[in-house]
UniProtKB/TrEMBL annotation:
Pfam name, any one: DEAD
Bias kind Basic and acidic residues: ranges: 465-474
Family: Belongs to the DEAD box helicase family.
Helicase C-terminal domain location: 236-381
Protein's name according to its UniProt entry: DEAD/DEAH box helicase
Residue stretches making up the Helicase ATP-binding domain: 32-210
Bias type Low complexity, positions: 393-405, 438-449
Molecular function terms from GO: helicase activity
Protein biosynthesis among keywords: no
Length: 474
C-alpha cells in the first residue's frame, strides 16, 4: 500500500517523500484510513513504529480545507491539540509537524514548561491551527487566556500511559472539560493499563481499535541481552562493552537522576564522550544535549526514563539498561529507542543480584523468556561457576577476547576452570544460584578450633573459604 492509496493530498505526499518515507508503516496503514473517517481511535503502538505520522498525516488531511495564508489571528483558531507527557516528545512531534506541513499553509506551535512563556504566548496570539503541548504549560496558557480551546476539533493523547504514570490525570481531565464535546479523540499508548481503558470509556465515543503489535510487545527487530554482573562492576562492564562492541552511539538508562549523574561522571573519567539528561537539568541544556546526540557529536547519552521519553534518534544502534526498570512497561519504552522504523538494534541490560524481580516482571509483561547470562571477565560473585565437566552447558558471553587459561598459583588447576560454565538460568536469588550448577556444591566444614563445626555449602562462603587448603578445610 502506498501513501497515495491512503488518499493523502499531494502536498503531504511531497513532504513525506522528502523525508524518505516510501511506504506507510503498519500502524500508519491501519490508523490513517480510520482517522480520515472522523471516528475516535484507540491505538496500541510501540515506540518507533511511525505513530506520529499515523495521527498527524490524517489530521493534516482533515485540516487542509482550513489552510490559509491570512495574517488575521481569527483565521487561525486552534483546531488540533496534541498532548504529550514530556517536553522532548512534544518538541519531537513539533519537528515532525513542521516537516509534514512544509507545503501546506497550516500553522503550529509547541508549548512546554521550563522555558520562557512569552514567545509561546506571542505565537498563540498570532493564531495557529495546531498546538503541541505538555499538559501543565497548556493549562498555564489557558489561565493566562493566551489560548482558546473552544474550536478544537481533534485531540491526540500521545503516550497516554506515560501521562498517567507521570500523574497528569487531573490536568488531562481538566483539559478535556475545556474542549468541545463534538470532536475527534485519538489516544495512542504503548501499553493499555486499566486506567487508560477507563479514560477511553469516559472521553471517547465508540473508538475504533488499532493494534498492530501485540500489547506490551517489545520490538522484534531488537536483539536483547541480559548480563548478570555485580552492582559495583556495572560501570566497568559498561565502559568495556561500549569500547569492545565499538558502539558508535548508545543511550544508557538509569533509574534515578543521581544515578545518571554518577554514571556520567564515571564514564567521563573513562575517557568517553558522554552527557547526562534528566529532569533537574535546565530545559536549554537538555535540548542542547539532545541536539548534540542526534547530530552524532555525542557518543553516550545517560538518561532517566522521563527525560528520554519520545527521543527519536534515527539509526540508534544500542540501548543499555544500567539498571532494570521497576515498571516493566519502561523496559518496552526504553528498548524502543533502538530498532526504529524497521532498523535493527541491540538492547543490553545489566542485571544485579537484587534485580530478579524486575526481570521476572519484564518477562511476564512481554511474554518473552529472557535468559540472564554472566559475562566472562565480569563474572558475578553470586553466580557459581559450574565444573569443567559440564560439557553440555553453553559458554558464557565473552566480554572480550577470551584470556588463555592460566595456572592457579595455589593448586595448579586452571584459574578459571569453568570457561564453559553454565550461565545461570534463574534470577539470582539463592535458589537460582544453585539452579545453574552441574552438580551440587561441595560442602566444607567451618568453625574455629574447639567450637562445634557446621557444614555449609561452599558456594555460600566468601571466596577465601573456597580455595582448597592443604588441610582440606579449617
Ligand atoms: P515515531 O514512532 O513516530 O517516533 O517514528 C519513528 C521514526 O520513523 C521517525 O524517525 C519517523 O520520521 C520515521 N518514520 C515514520 N514513518 C515512516 C515511514 N513511513 N517510512 C520511514 N520512516 C518513517
Amino acid at each position: 500500500m502506498s501513501f497515495a492509496e491512503l488518499g493523502l493530498t499531494p502536498e503531504i505526499q511531497r513532504a513525506i517523500e522528502e523525508l524518505g518515507y516510501t511506504q506507510p508503516t503498519p500502524i500508519q496503514a491501519a490508523a490513517i484510513p480510520k482517522v480520515l473517517t472522523g471516528r475516535d481511535l484507540l491505538a496500541a503502538a510501540q515506540t518507533g513504529t511511525g505513530k506520529t505520522a499515523a495521527f498527524m498525516l490524517p489530521i493534516l488531511e482533515r485540516l487542509k480545507k482550513f489552510a490559509n495564508s491570512s495574517a488575521s489571528p481569527a483565521m487561525h483558531p486552534v483546531r488540533a491539540l496534541i498532548l504529550s507527557p514530556t517536553r522532548e516528545l512534544a518538541d519531537q512531534i513539533a519537528v515532525n509537524v513542521a516537516a509534514y506541513t512544509k507545503y501546506l499553509p497550516i500553522k503550529h506551535v509547541v508549548v512546554f514548561g521550563g522555558v520562557n512563556m512569552d514567545p509561546q504566548t506571542e505565537a498563540l496570539r498570532r493564531g495557529v491551527e495546531i498546538v503541541v503541548a505538555t499538559p501543565g504549560r497548556l493549562l498555564d496558557h489557558v489561565q493566562q487566556k493566551s489560548i482558546h480551546l473552544n474550536k478544537v476539533e481533534m485531540l491526540v493523547l500521545d503516550e497516554a500511559d506515560r501521562m498517567l504514570d507521570m500523574g497528569f490525570i487531573n490536568d488531562i481531565r481538566k483539559i478535556l472539560s475545556l474542549l468541545p464535546k463534538h470532536r475527534q479523540t485519538l489516544l495512542f499508548s504503548a501499553t493499555f493499563a486499566p486506567e487508560i481503558k477507563k479514560l477511553a470509556e469516559d472521553f471517547m465515543r465508540t473508538p475504533e481499535l488499532v493494534q498492530v503489535a501485540r500489547q506490551n510487545a517489545t520490538n522484534e527487530q531488537v536483539e536483547q541481552h541480559i548480563y548478570q554482573v555485580d552492582a559495583g562492576r556495572k560501570r566497568h562492564l559498561l565502559s568495556h562493552l561500549i569500547k569492545t562492541r565499538q558502539m558508535s552511539q548508545v543511550i544508557v538508562f538509569c533509574r534515578t537522576k543521581q544515578g545518571v549523574d554518577t554514571l556520567t561522571r564515571d564514564l567521563k573519567r573513562d575517557g568517553l564522550s558522554v552527557e547526562a539528561i534528566h529532569g533537574d537539568k535546565a530545559q536549554g541544556v537538555r535540548l542542547e544535549t539532545l541536539a548534540s546526540f542526534k547530530s552524532g557529536d555525542l557518543r553516550v547519552l545517560v538518561a532517566t526514563d522521563v527525560a528520554a521519553r519520545g527521543l527519536d534518534v534515527s539509526d540508534l544502534p544500542y540501548v543499555v539498561n544500567f539498571e532494570l526498570p521497576n515498571a516493566p512497561e519502561d523496559y518496552v519504552h526504553r528498548i524502543g529507542r533502538t530498532g526504529r522504523a524497521g532498523a535493527t538494534g541491540v538492547a543490553i541490560s545489566l542485571m544485579g543480584e537484587d534485580e530478579g524481580r524486575q526481570l521476572e516482571a519484564i518477562a511476564k509483561l512481554t511474554l518473552q523468556a529472557l535468559k540472564p547470562e554472566p559475562v566472562e571477565g565480569f563474572w558475578p560473585s553470586w553466580v557459581p561457576r559450574a565444573k569443567p565437566a559440564a560439557e553440555a552447558a553453553p559458554a558464557p558471553v565473552q566480554a572480550a577476547a577470551p584470556a588463555p587459561a592460566r595456572k592457579s598459583a595455589t593448586n595448579g588447576a586452571p584459574r578459571h576452570p569453568s570457561a564453559n560454565a553454565a550461565p545461570v538460568g534463574t534470577y539470582g536469588n539463592s535458589a537460582g544460584v544453585a539452579a545453574g550448577l552441574a552438580e551440587p556444591a561441595p560442602r566444607r566444614a567451618i568453625g574455629r578450633p574447639g567450637s562445634r563445626r557446621r557444614e555449609v555449602s561452599a558456594l555460600l562462603l566468601p571466596p577465601r573459604y573456597k580455595v582448597e587448603s592443604p588441610r582440606g578445610g579449617r
